[in-house]
Amino acid sequence: MIYTVTFNPALDYAVYLDTLEMGALNRTKSEELRCGGKGINVSVVLRNLGMETRALGFLAGFTGQCIAFWLEQMSVQSDFIMLPAGMSRINIKLKTGVETEINGQGPDIPPQALDELFAKLDRIGDGDTLVLAGSIPASLPVDIYERILSRLSGRGIRCVVDASGDLLLNVLQYHPFLIKPNQHELSELCGVSLTSGDLAGIKACASQLQEQGARNVLVSLGPDGALLLTEDGKFLHQEAAAGTVRNSVGAGDSMVAGFLTGLHLTGSYREALRMGAAAGAATAFSDHLATRREVEQLLNTL
């Protein structure tokens, strides 16, 4: 089973306009509403690819109830903790040729709710995978990812961390199975300026993160594909699929889901990287998260 944790789920409200004029009435061409949050995105794509997954985290208010209903309609198993106050956030995605995002704050998470999450995590066992993805609300301790990986250490659980900055750096001591920074996040983590075409610099930074404890380092490079540093020290590069980018939201999460699916099905890091690239591109080339058919079509081109 692959579990995901989303500390701050959201309803993503995508609004399509020809232009956006500040201080004036603007009318949309179309709108879309879907549940979001990095862990949720991973679970949705895993389910689309036929994998067994369960989404964990926190929900609140009528927006939280909507997210839970949405996941049920998509046949994604979930076991969220409903908070007593507040509401799950609504994130606004303004699409006017360029993407502008306005993300809400989300509800406060009290200590007793966090204890309830720990109890659920304690039931994860040997051979399972746990994906921790995204930022954390201000009401949670800044070391929450560290506390979770420390708690699960030595239990045969594959831990995947998709986060940025200190949130990621501070968990490397617990040897996560996989981390997935993009090029910009990798630059920040290593304190250098990298371009997606600077494979030598990217490899050096990936090696640095592995030396600090990460077992596998997967770097998404946008139009330049993806680079994987495996736990046995091998670098694998995957060219990007051909297509027109329509939506970047969820592409990195889809890459994580595709990678885990490919690894489960084949046991090969090369095939995992290929499926990860296909899944990430399938989401980027559409207005929704990748479906199995879209991933398989792109996989045949890589």
TrEMBL record:
Record key words, sorted:
ATP-binding, Kinase, Lactose metabolism, Nucleotide-binding, Transferase
- Keyword check for Transferase, yes or no: yes
EC number per UniProt? 2.7.1.144
A GO molecular-function term, please? 1-phosphofructokinase activity
Q: Which InterPro entries match?
A: 1-PFruKinase, Carboh/pur_kinase_PfkB_CS, PfkB_dom, Ribokinase-like, Tagatose/fructose_Pkinase
Q: Which SUPFAM superfamilies match?
A: Ribokinase-like
Q: Which top EC class applies here?
A: transferase
**Membrane: present as a keyword of the record?**
no
Pathway, per record: Carbohydrate metabolism; D-tagatose 6-phosphate degradation; D-glyceraldehyde 3-phosphate and glycerone phosphate from D-tagatose 6-phosphate: step 1/2
Q: Which reaction does it catalyse?
A: D-tagatofuranose 6-phosphate + ATP = D-tagatofuranose 1,6-bisphosphate + ADP + H(+); beta-D-fructose 1-phosphate + ATP = beta-D-fructose 1,6-bisphosphate + ADP + H(+)
Q: Which Pfam families match?
A: PfkB
Positions of the Carbohydrate kinase PfkB domain: 9-284
PANTHER family per the UniProt record, alphabetical: 1-PHOSPHOFRUCTOKINASE, 1-PHOSPHOFRUCTOKINASE-RELATED
The family note in this entry says: Belongs to the carbohydrate kinase PfkB family. LacC subfamily. Belongs to the carbohydrate kinase pfkB family.
What does the UniProt record say this protein does? Answer: Catalyzes the ATP-dependent phosphorylation of fructose-l-phosphate to fructose-l,6-bisphosphate.
What protein name is recorded for this chain? Answer: Tagatose-6-phosphate kinase
